[in-house]
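Progress against Task 2.4 (sequence-to-structure conversion) is shown through the following example record, which the project officer requested during the mid-term review.
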Amino acid sequence: WIQFADIHEAIGEHQLTLLCVLKGSYKFFSALVDELSNARWSCKEPMTIDFIRCKSYEDDASSGHVQIIGLGNMEELRGKNVLIVDDIVDTGLTLSKLIHTIEEHGAKKIWTALLVSKRVPRRVDVVEDFVAFHIPNKFIVGYGLDYNQKFRDLNHICVMSAAGIAKYKNS
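Structure tokens generated for the chain above:
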């Protein structure tokens, strides 16, 4: 599990914008904000939060195409320290594109906090600053992670069976 003190120590007392990658990381993001608020209670610089949406999956496979939706004015990140909070990294394409986009808009410093990192070869390398869990290449749902918009509400993470994938596949 991520040590929140490690995040606070790495970032320090500086201004921090936490960027929640919707929809999958909302539960992890909420827990992270609560814990970081406790760790940073004495900071003179407040945390700010914002939301963005990235979409790259169809059924249980990465589509290879990444859509970034939201944060209408990315210029708001110029000169800011940004902690990207994402649910899962597997191919690396989504996170890589998001980091690149934020860099292009002039963020001062970027870190990543990930709920899950799959132990699979990446299509592109990405920096994983803070990772809660490293897992094998299994399709998982719960705690914000979904399969065709289902199972986000679970308070735990489960491996999705082949039968479950077939049952809930979009047709």
